[in-house]
Amino acid sequence: MCDLYWLTDEQMARLEPFFPKSHGKPRVDDRGVLGGIIFVNRNVLRWRVAPREYGPAKTLYNRWKRWGEKGAIIAMMDGRSARGAERKTIMIDATYLKANRTALSL
């Protein structure tokens, strides 16, 4: 598979407050899961074809769904993770969106 996407320690530190707290058994590493979610969405892939280094595909999907419902994904991508003077806006590049040729109506 092509290059894997990993967040830096600085990025993880800024995003840490937005991760929902764990209840019960230990979770799969948040860094790997978030990297996997970004990788799958960036490359327009199915969850089941995500590289194993990110964790189980079912975990990636379940976290994406749960975090999305709780607003954590939006909060992370909205740039609210930066504090004070170091506030930065995170933009999503539309060049990663791909159209399916079967969607064309002739």
DSSP helix fraction: 25-40%
Biggest sheet architecture: none
Helical element count?
4
First and last CA, distance: 35 Å
Number of strands: 0
Instruction: Spell out the helices and strands N to C.
Output: HHHH
If you average the pLDDT, what whole number results? Answer: 78
Strand content: under 5%
Structure classification: mainly alpha
Shape: globular
Spans of at least 5 consecutive residues whose pLDDT stays below 50 are none
Provide the gyration radius in Å: 15 Å
Domain Insertion element IS402-like: 7-73
Protein name: Transposase
Organism: Sphingobium boeckii
InterPro entries: IS402-like_dom, Transposase_6_like
Features:
single chain, IS402-like_dom, 4 helices, Transposase_6_like, 106 residues, Transposase
